[in-house]
Amino acid sequence: MRIFSPSNIAVDFGKTLKSNEFIAMLRREVLDSFLRSRAASAGATVIPALVTAIDLPPSPTAPYTIHYTLQNTYRRSLAVDVVIGADGANSRVAKSIGAGDYTCAIAFQERIKLPDEKMAYYENLAEMYVGNDVSPDFYGWVFPKCDHVAVGTGTVRSKQDIKLYQKGIRDRVHHKIKGGKLIKVEAHPIPEHPRPLRVRGRVALVGDAAGYVTKCSGEGIYFAAKSGRVCGNAVVKASEGGYKMIDECDLRREYLKIWDKEYVNTFRFLDLLQRVFYGSNAAREALVELCGDEYVQRMTFESYLYKKLAKGRVFDDAKMVMNTIGSLVKCNILGRKMEGLIL
Amino acid sequence: MQFQAISTTTTMASFSPLTRFTPTPSSSSSSSSSASASHHSKPHLLNTFLTLRPRPRPSNTPFLLFSPLKASADNGVGTAVEQPPQAVPDPPPPAEAVGTNGSIGGGAVAEEVKEEEVVVVSGFVDPKWVGGTWDLKQFHKNGTTDWDAVIDAEARRRKWLEENPESSSNENPVIFDTSIIPWWAWMKRFHLPEAELLNGRAAMVGFFMAYLVDGLTGVGLVDQMNNFFCKTLLFVAVGGVLLIRKNEDVETIKKLWDETTFYDKQWQATWKEDENSSTSKKE
């Protein structure tokens, strides 16, 4: 992956990847249908329908009632004991249990089909752009998707200016996407932090519905899948294979506690990175400068690929901290000089 | 062209005499404007820049940079003006593009026109910026590289690109790495003046407090240093001078603390609800 600073200084981020390691790009349309068919083959009953409402039970042992519509016409209901809400950022399940709200970022993306010689450049390369012209608090990207590229950006605080930022990212890759054809435009909210309530009664939220998206990189797919699995395992364990009724305490103990213990540090660390490095152009220059360092790259990829904050050697960590401070100081000095300049 | 239009406006603006430079935000601006005064009296502007370049500059006055900076800024842009004159006839659209987000309209216009006439030139042009990095050979002063000028040039480049973001390209990648500037160059220019200031403040506060304590309690300096409470006060005073350099820093530190703990609060919110609900109703 290549990261471009606001002044187009580029670093190659991936020098330390081994041959079996890579940064995955995915097409949601393919992944989603794969997951559904895998669930079906594992024994789940798949009902293609739209959930319209969920009735809360009047007593701790009564079932939840899920109202849904089939094929836009038939209205049905289903009585269930446990509900796991995996319905994304605009979760209906979360609304029905009063889980509370969260701030969202908006991610905007355009899929562009490039001419062959330009696509060859992106065959094994993703790009990431930082800068105030691209986003005030996030990054812009060019991600290859098999036979086309996705060019996009996102923001939390200036959602109404998202089109301007999209123009900014397109200008930054102007030469590389010239001659390309726009095939799709998509946008979606991305939660910034977990909801105030993730479990209530016998309803649990997972993935985007719960708000498990890291800051800084905006990664949510792994955490969505993993939280689904952890929650599922929690239900199975607490209900002893489906024979015992569970309650909120079981869900908290088996799902939330285990999840928080495992991943809250990762989330906190990425939040810190975002606060330190995404604040200003000077900080972003420092980020790109630091990303050129091999130790930083190795630690980043080990943490990203294996989803555990990697433990390096203390001496190298100390060196990295000193380099971080040094880069931040140098780039902030340049930033202060820049403020005094009138060009 | 967009940047050429900007260059003409800045050259015009900067040549409205001396009044332009007096409101610069530094105490040593008086010296800079007097330095530039002698040069602005000369009628020929472009020649002025070319002669300004090799002048020796005092190294430890940070804001004197204003005059050579202005000079070199216009020198760089002046080069663009001297380039193919047929690229000039496009003043009206870039003038309004400058008002909005610079690169959107003007950049597109600039690109098309440029491609017809000249080799594609990216927005930032400077004779010392060669092949995507600063050519250190051009920064020589008295036989060694003038790192201060390199730092200034990079600041100018970044400011230029911040205001006129330009497309990254595969043919002209930027390969400049700030780590080529040695650490002592940064230290000499930025750390040492500020360290001097802070040490001065600490010394003044220390002397005054020592005198005050001695006067109030009769405890002399040596005895103060042996006392734990006084040593704590000393530590607080030094820390305070380091962290709080302007009045705004107090607010900044408070805000930083709030931000640090905010994300954590959001994560723990679900557990807080648990405490409230379990105390309010027993299920």
Automatic annotation (TrEMBL), chain A:
<dbReference type="InterPro" id="IPR054715">
    <property type="entry name" value="GGR_cat"/>
</dbReference>
<feature type="domain" description="Digeranylgeranylglycerophospholipid reductase catalytic">
    <location>
        <begin position="121"/>
        <end position="180"/>
    </location>
</feature>
<dbReference type="InterPro" id="IPR010253">
    <property type="entry name" value="BchP_ChlP_pln/prok"/>
</dbReference>
<dbReference type="InterPro" id="IPR011774">
    <property type="entry name" value="Geranylgeranyl_Rdtase_pln/cyn"/>
</dbReference>
<dbReference type="Pfam" id="PF22578">
    <property type="entry name" value="GGR_cat"/>
</dbReference>
<protein>
    <recommendedName>
        <fullName>Digeranylgeranylglycerophospholipid reductase catalytic domain-containing protein</fullName>
    </recommendedName>
</protein>
<dbReference type="InterPro" id="IPR050407">
    <property type="entry name" value="Geranylgeranyl_reductase"/>
</dbReference>
<dbReference type="InterPro" id="IPR036188">
    <property type="entry name" value="FAD/NAD-bd_sf"/>
</dbReference>
From TrEMBL, chain B:
<keyword id="KW-0812">Transmembrane</keyword>
<keyword id="KW-0472">Membrane</keyword>
<keyword id="KW-1133">Transmembrane helix</keyword>
<feature type="region of interest" description="Disordered">
    <location>
        <begin position="16"/>
        <end position="42"/>
    </location>
</feature>
<protein>
    <submittedName>
        <fullName>Uncharacterized protein</fullName>
    </submittedName>
</protein>
<feature type="compositionally biased region" description="Polar residues">
    <location>
        <begin position="16"/>
        <end position="25"/>
    </location>
</feature>
<feature type="compositionally biased region" description="Low complexity">
    <location>
        <begin position="26"/>
        <end position="38"/>
    </location>
</feature>
